[in-house]
Specification:
It is a single chain. This protein has helices spanning 45-52, 123-127, 130-143, 160-171, 185-191, 204-207, 222-227, 245-250, 255-264, 266-274, 288-299, 316-324, and strands spanning 4-10, 19-25, 33-43, 65-66, 71-78, 90-93, 106-110, 114-116, 151-154, 175-180, 195-198, 211-216, 230-238, 278-281, 307-312, 331-335. It is of the alpha/beta class and 337 residues long. It has two domains: 4-128 and 305-335, Quinone Oxidoreductase, Chain A, domain 1, CATH 3.90.180; 131-281, NAD(P)-binding Rossmann-like Domain (Rossmann fold). The strands form three sheets. Strands 3, 5, 6, 7, 8, 15 and 16 form a seven-stranded mixed sheet that branches. A six-stranded parallel sheet has the order 11-10-9-12-13-14, sandwiched between helices. A three-stranded antiparallel sheet has the order 2-1-4, with no helix packed on it. Helix 4 links the parallel strand 9 and strand 10. Helix 3 (130-143) packs across helix 4 (160-171).
Length: 337
């Protein structure tokens, strides 16, 4: 018999009133799955976007569904084809985009998406890492091919992705600039930023130039202004959109959605091309292998996660509201157990 578990669910898309705590059946294990008892999960801006329906064309979840995009916990059971993990292992992960559900007591996840958690971290700190860690890794290492001696601008340096990306970029040997508010200037310098632009006092596009890459996580006109700081041959990588045709192909979207993505990114792609800059949209994917490499960097003391606040599972709604204010320093975590 399938047992019920506590979970934070989305029963209908919309701003706030479609979210609530409820009971859901424990997940069913497939042969290449690992069942994990969740100890902590982290809250990401992506959770809000999913709950309002922003991604429903791309990720058609069946309502009601459990929200939550990364976690840490302990392995309870493994499927018949699983080889790397056993009950009792302490793990962390970002589940595949079509199988989210970290705001719950248990999750079934593909073996390939899972990694042993960093030994030096608590469960709460470990839960804060997967989504932002993989985003930074895939933006800087894969898409950005960031090299020693290059210059990168990382927007929103005090946010979840920003705090992680600054430390990773420094480890790769880059010179790092970031944007933040007055209150966080000294703090992001301590994380490793070489150049800090206080957006309340300065316009970044007027004080920075000749950069090799930009990691953008902000909306509005920040994306277009970022073109002005890049040199020809530079790379503009955005995790806040607009999505491009390459993303549509990676995701295996249908012809109509591919055309829509082409249209959405047309303006920024054309402006980038005119300046000989490559624009790309990143929607981070699950990867246990990359998380294992990130864990090694954390255990070596190269990167330290930044956690702002910890909420109990029952207060996930409050945790999301706090993240939606956009003022969190680093990550917000939900303690499940």
């Amino acid at each position: 018999m399938v047992k019920p578990m506590k979970a934070f669910i989305i029963e209908r898309y919309g701003k706030k009133n479609g979210r609530r705590m409820d009971e859901m059946p424990e997940p069913v294990l497939r042969e290449d799955d690992v069942l994990v008892e969740i100890h902590a999960a982290s809250v990401n801006p992506l959770d809000s976007k999913i709950s309002t329906g922003e991604f429903k064309l791309i990720l058609p979840y069946r309502l009601p569904f459990i929200l939550g995009n990364d976690f840490s916990g302990v392995v309870v059971r493994v499927g018949s084809r699983v080889q790397k993990f056993k009950p009792g292992d302490e793990v962390y992960a970002r589940p595949d985009a079509d199988r989210i559900g970290a705001f719950a007591e248990f999750i079934a996840i593909k073996e390939a998406s899972l990694a042993m958690k960093p030994k030096t971290l608590t469960m709460e700190d470990a839960a804060s890492v997967p989504l932002v860690g993989l985003t930074a890794w895939q933006a800087l290492v894969e898409k950005g091919n960031l090299k020693k001696g290059q210059k990168i601008l990382i927007h929103a340096g005090s946010g979840g992705v920003g705090t992680f990306a600054i430390q990773l970029a420094k480890n790769l040997g880059a010179t790092v600039a970031t944007t933040t508010s007055t209150a966080n200037v000294d703090w992001v310098k301590r994380l490793g930023a070489d150049v800090v632009v206080d957006y309340k006092q300065q316009q970044f596009e007027k004080v920075l130039g000749d950069y090799d890459s930009v990691l953008n996580s902000l909306g509005g006109d920040t994306l277009e202004k970022s073109l002005l700081v890049l040199k020809p041959g530079g790379k503009l990588i955005s995790i806040s959109g607009p999505p491009d045709i390459e993303f549509a192909q990676e995701f295996g979207l249908n012809w109509m959605l591919k055309q829509l993505m082409r249209l959405l990114s047309f303006q920024i792609r054309k402006k980038a091309e005119r300046r000989q800059i490559r624009y790309s949209f990143l929607f981070m994917r699950a990867s246990g292998d990359q998380l294992a490499r990130i864990a090694a960097l954390i255990d070596a003391g190269v990167i330290r996660p930044v956690v702002d606040r910890i909420f109990p599972l029952e207060s996930t709604h409050d945790a999301m509201a706090y993240v939606e204010q956009g003022r969190a320093k680093g990550k917000v975590v939900v303690k499940v157990r």
